[in-house]
Amino acid sequence: MCEVKMKKSFSMKKDFPENKALLSENLQAVEQTIENACGRSGRRRGDVTLIAVSKTKPLSMLREAYDAGARDFGENKVQELMEKMPEMPSDIRWHMIGHLQRNKVKYIVGRVYMIHSVDSLRLAEEISREALKKNVTVRILLEVNVAGEDSKFGAAVSETAALAESIAKLPAVHIEGLMTIAPFAENPEDNREYFQKLRQLSVDIARRNIDNVSMDVLSMGMTGDYSVAVEEGATCVRVGTGIFGGREYKAE
Ligand SMILES: *Cc1c(COP(=O)(O)O)cnc(C)c1O
């Protein structure tokens, strides 16, 4: 099935027990923040999915989050996903949120709940081709570079509707909505305009009534700004640091 030789890309070391207690408290605090943001904006808590972004974190912490109620997990690397998935309960919905290379598509199609990071027709074609082979349909989101940052992946705002129209013709992918990674901001209010922009774009695309495209999902908001994102209509927030603590990246 998975013929790549994988080196461990995340730490297997056990965490200190005091970290574990903290994790469930973190999760509860994030839940509360989402609920409050829903309250302020007249939304229901059930309209927002919290994705626990567990990249770089050891399995012990993922299990702790699972035990505390998390069922949606986000990872940004195919290899790490492949390593973690078989070790975790099967009722988890795995979200691929990171940049995806076409040659890695085959490993995750049929195994992840949703791919958030589709930003080209070529990538979508590869996903559809793999999905046909496996006789599945893949839920995808179109990643949009709303702030037009050079450093970011994602389709330009002006190109997204056309991209949706061409991807919609593929037989085995279904566009469920849009995703964005907003700029790093000290003040989350600075990102409000980008969340509004993504939401407006999803409304514009929905109005086109493209066959095989729905715009129900808005994946936006991370640890620094998810509260503002929920106020602006996020249906998925992707929170890593706020649940699992800061990340250490090791040099390869
Ligand atoms: C890492 C990551 C997140 C979570 O970031 P935090 O700031 O730790 O919450 C969300 N979305 C994507 C695409 C990521 O890569």
Care to describe what's here?
By secondary structure, the chain is of the alpha/beta class. α1 packs across α2 and α6 packs parallel to α7. Helix content is 38%, strand content 17%. β6, α7 and β7 form a beta-alpha-beta unit. Strands 7-6-5-4-3-2-1-8 form an eight-stranded parallel β-sheet. The protein is built from nine helices and eight strands. The protein binds pyridoxal-5'-phosphate. The site of pyridoxal-5'-phosphate has 14 residues, from β8 and α9. Pyridoxal-5'-phosphate binds next to β8 and α9.
Average pLDDT over all residues: 93
Tell me the structural class: alpha/beta
Gap between N and C termini: 26 Å
Q: Pick out the low-confidence regions.
A: 1-7, 12-17
How does the overall form come out from the CA principal axes? globular
Q: How many E-type strands?
A: 8
> Could you tell me the radius of gyration in angstroms?
18 Å
Structure described in brief:
The chain is an alpha/beta fold.
Properties at a glance:
9 helices; about 250 residues; eight-stranded parallel β-sheet; single chain; binds pyridoxal-5'-phosphate; alpha/beta; disordered N terminus
